[in-house]
Amino acid sequence: MLGVALLVLGPAGQFLRGRNQRPVEEREPLLVGVPVTGRWRGLNSPASKVPSHTHGLAQTYAIDITHVPEGAPPRAMDWLWPQMRRPQSFPSFGRPVLAPVDGVVVETCGASRDHLTRLSPAGLIYLLVEGVVRSLGAPRRLLGNYVLLRAETDGSIVAVLAHLRRGSLRVSPGDRVTAGQQLAECGNSGNSSDPHVHFQLMEGTDITTARGLPFEWEYAADGEARRGVPANEELFVAADPR
């Protein structure tokens, strides 16, 4: 009965929280730096669907990105075996995660474990149930290890970088950082199927009440310079900001 109650209350709570955090007005996208370098793929992108995740936890315009170096096999489901893999076997794991703006670190979490991947039928079922249980706890249960960075140019704008590698954080609350500075490494902590970087902007420092903000990056795709947000499954290259 407890399990059934959790499965009912979890989605209901997420729905109500999402309604309260739905943006109330349209905003022009804010240009910020890409928080990684190299070749990546867009997933769960606001360029393909809004909300890209949910409105809850200010994720309306959030994007997930996964590293795809030249010659690497495409990200794919493990249909038969293994049902779960160590995150170290994925190219995203351990990649540097950079500050998208000049600003001040307002909150961090760096102790959540990097769990096994969930890229299999059984793993995704486990991830779904696990996600419901995580949603009943503090936001860090979903975000895993993360950094909240308040923009220097506008103190109401906060960048969120999540699912970071345990023990990789190079900053602490109160630290002042510059755009392009390494904050941590990509990991597989929190509500994550496989190693990737979760990025979003929000208005305010409280992720449980803030509203998501649209953003745009400057990057290259198909050999062309672009400004916007990579769509789902779109490969893009982020230049080294330094």
TrEMBL record:
Alphabetized Pfam families for the sequence: Peptidase_M23
Q: Which residues form the M23ase beta-sheet core domain?
A: 129-204
One MF annotation (Gene Ontology) recorded for this entry: metalloendopeptidase activity
Q: Which residues form a coiled coil?
A: none
- Identify the InterPro entries for this entry: Cell_wall_metabolism_enzyme, Dup_hybrid_motif, M23ase_b-sheet_dom
Q: Which PANTHER family does this chain map to?
A: MUREIN HYDROLASE ACTIVATOR ENVC, PEPTIDASE-RELATED
Which protein, by its recorded name, is this?
Peptidase M23
